[in-house]
UniProtKB/TrEMBL annotation:
A Pfam family that the UniProt record links to this protein: tRNA-synt_1e
The keyword Ligase is assigned to this record: yes
GO cellular component: cytoplasm
Lineage: Eukaryota, Metazoa, Chordata, Craniata, Vertebrata
Keyword hit for Magnesium: no
Alphabetized GO MF terms: ATP binding; cysteine-tRNA ligase activity
Annotated spans, Disordered: 1-23
UniProtKB keywords: ATP-binding, Ligase, Nucleotide-binding
GO biological process: cysteinyl-tRNA aminoacylation
Record-linked InterPro entries: Cys-tRNA/MSH_ligase, Rossmann-like_a/b/a_fold, tRNA-synt_1_cat_dom
Protein name (record): tRNA synthetases class I catalytic domain-containing protein
Stretches assigned to the tRNA synthetases class I catalytic domain: 43-67
Length: 69
């Protein structure tokens, strides 16, 4: 049996390790008020909530529903 499959046939996820390098990428979001991309900083430590006004969806929500054309 392959090393990447468990006894039940499900794939095992490799352990995660942070990327190597000095620069940490920063999430930047478009601010429609200032019309500029600005760095994102969570208001409550590491907890983030997200509200997106958009189309009515009839299935599980995902980030693709938040895209702008």
């Amino acid at each position: 049996m392959s090393d990447s499959l468990s006894a039940k046939g499900k794939r095992l996820q490799p352990s995660w390790s942070p990327p190597a390098g000095g620069d940490v990428p920063q999430l930047r979001l478009y601010n429609s008020l200032t019309r500029a991309k600005e760095p994102f900083f969570p208001q409550r430590g590491t907890r983030v909530t997200w509200y997106c006004c958009g189309p009515t969806v009839y299935d599980a929500s995902h980030m693709g529903h938040a895209r702008y054309r």
